[in-house]
Design brief:
By secondary structure, this protein is mainly beta. It contains two helices and 26 strands.
Length: 410
């Protein structure tokens, strides 16, 4: 767990340093403007068209320079039954995570790649296997080394009599010997909701307490509170707590706290804006975006310091109408690919399938800058008059919708 948190911090540092900055954030007004001006992002309240979440764009705020930097872009592909097929998260020229799923929603593989200066190079991969009844059986981890995948460890699962996950044990290879490293005990209620998770660490032949997590739910089965404790000095000690509440203007607020030894101190908060006229039942979404039962539009997070709130990051969500004939049960390459990035004077985009395409360029704050229409194999747009910085290029055709991150640097 501690190594996972450290790895996340390292990835965040890479994402901040790798990008060209912008001086303005996604304010609540900017988010509202962006989603309203992009009619493919926010559905008309009276339409019944099925939609899918195509991508999420995240930007981070650097408190030292007081500038916004491009963070991760996450793209989604779906099966014809609406379940998630593939999820790709990429921090430009830094880090990429690719997750692939089966048609029933089961996670099949998770691969990590790292930018080596010229292209993304394989780093780690985990393959997941299941019993014939669909219950989790095991997963195997690999590391890319000297041109081939080398097995590094595996995990085994135990399922209780009701079919819920009960226990998971991780093993790591030392030479040819598999050594247990961590273990997880899952305590679920009668409906399978997780209410307590206890983790253990293996040390010199003994399983020792590590962390434990607690979950409570509201009447709508949404997670209302979450907190965890660490094992220190032969007892459980408070560490972190978060709580979620629904506030005005269709915004859900989640606030987190750290334990100072005597009481809880506010640490950060995240506000997510929803369109409550649109239910998740009419959307193709990854499971994490279905938690509040309505269409999520944007989110923004803040840290708390000496009575003041400061920016952490912002995320926008891009949707398009579902064309069932355009969704297959097999992976396919993207319609559009940047010829080069950063761009100096002319933006060139490969139109890999020659579709008639509507192109819109937006600033990082959601202002529509430029539009074009093209069915050429290489779409060309002049950008020499645009200021340096990060831009979103939204491209729509009759079968799909994509958003590309473009950095202009004259």
């Amino acid at each position: 767990m501690k190594s996972t948190l450290l790895f996340s911090v390292i990835c965040y540092a890479f994402s901040v340093q790798a990008q060209i900055p912008n001086s303005e954030p996604f304010s609540q007004r900017d988010i509202h403007l962006f989603t309203q001006t992009k009619n493919v992002t926010l559905s008309n309240h009276h339409r019944s068209t099925l939609q899918k979440l195509d991508s999420m764009q995240n930007i981070h705020y650097d408190t030292w320079s007081q500038l916004w930097y491009s963070g991760a872009t996450t793209r989604f592909e779906y099966y014809t039954n609406g379940s998630l097929k593939k999820q790709t998260s990429e921090t430009y020229q830094s880090f990429k995570e690719v997750m692939e799923f089966g048609a029933q929603g089961e996670l099949l593989s998770r691969k990590y790649q790292v930018w080596d200066g010229f292209y993304y190079e394989d780093s780690f991969e985990t393959i997941y296997t299941y019993h014939a009844n669909g219950l989790h059986e095991s997963d195997t981890s690999y590391e890319w080394s000297n041109g081939y995948w080398e097995i590094t460890g595996f995990a085994q699962y135990q399922i209780d009599s009701l079919g819920f996950l009960k226990e998971k044990t991780n093993y790591q290879y030392q030479g040819k010997t598999a050594i247990p490293t961590t273990r997880f005990y899952y305590n679920n209620d009668a409906n399978g909701k997780l209410i307590n998770l206890v983790t253990f660490q293996y040390d010199n032949g003994i399983w020792e307490n590590n962390y434990q997590y607690f979950y409570t739910y509201n009447a709508q089965d949404r997670t209302a509170e979450f907190y965890y404790q660490s094992w220190q000095n032969s007892s459980w000690q408070n560490e972190y707590r978060s709580e979620s509440t629904f506030i005005t203007n269709n915004i859900t607020e989640g606030t987190s706290y750290f334990w100072n030894g005597a009481s809880w101190d506010i640490n950060s908060k995240e506000e997510s804006q929803y369109d409550t006229n649109i239910s998740t039942s009419s959307l193709y979404l990854p499971s994490g975006a279905k938690l509040n039962n309505h269409k999520i539009i944007a989110s923004q997070s803040y840290f708390y310091d000496n009575g003041l709130w400061g920016y952490i990051d912002s995320t926008l969500y891009f949707y398009s109408d579902v064309n069932p004939s355009a969704i297959s049960n097999h992976s396919s390459p993207p319609y559009y690919q940047l010829v080069q990035n950063p761009v100096k004077e002319q933006l060139l985009i490969k139109n890999t399938k020659g579709k008639n395409s509507a192109i819109s360029i937006y600033s990082s704050t959601g202002n529509l800058i430029k539009t074009a229409q093209s069915n050429e194999s290489v779409i060309q747009m002049e950008v020499q008059t645009l200021a340096n910085g990060l831009y979103f290029v939204a491209i729509q055709n009759g079968e799909g919708y994509e958003v590309l991150n473009v950095i202009i640097s004259h």
